[in-house]
Amino acid sequence: MLQLKTNRTFLAATFAVLLTTSLAIAQSPAGTETKPPAKAKSARPAKQLPAAYQPPEKIDPSLPNVLMLGDSISIGYMLDVRKELEGEANVFRPATNCGPTTNGIAGIEDWLGGPEMERDSL
User: Fold this and answer.
1) How much is the CA Rg of the chain, to the nearest whole Å?
2) Given pLDDT bands bounded at 50, 70 and 90, which one contains residue 48?
3) Alpha-carbon distance 78 to 68, whole Å?
4) Are 97 and 71 in contact (CB under 8 A)?
5) What are the start-end ranges of the H helices in the chain?
6) Which residue from 98, 60, 67 is spatially nearest to 81, judged by alpha carbons?
7) CB pairs under 8 A, 24+ apart, for 94-97?
């Protein structure tokens, strides 16, 4: 008899907890349900563009601007070209690997669209 009474007490207590929880959820206004806290995203520093993609440190408005297009190999010598043309031209390149000619044809309008590029100097 004691076992049956204990089981009934346990069941009654469990039912009371479930009922109370259900009522609390049902009565909460829409959109205010308790949600687990979002995981904190790790703070990553902003990704710095490689130096070859950066504009020249000093832009001389009296010099012509040159837009250098090329694939991954040209990225490797971009800074050397900029150094060799220092004092003769401001050398820029798109912040991307321009890839093959088909990419160049597709991207030329965007790449020439910056304020530093004057189309009449082509």
Assistant:
1) 33
2) confident
3) 8
4) yes
5) 2-27, 72-84, 101-111
6) 67
7) 94/53, 94/67, 94/69, 95/49, 95/53, 96/53, 97/71, 97/72
By percentage, how much of the chain surpasses pLDDT 90?
39
**Distance (Å, whole) CA 81 – CA 67:** 11
Rounded Cα gap, residues 107 and 101, in angstroms: 10
At residue 112 the predicted structure's pLDDT band, cuts being 50, 70 and 90, is confident
User: What is the H or E stretch that residue 67 is in?
Assistant: strand 65-67
Q: What is the Cα–Cα distance from 82 to 10, expressed in whole angstroms?
A: 81
Residue at 62: amino acid letter: S
Helix (H/G/I), strand (E/B), else coil: 66: strand
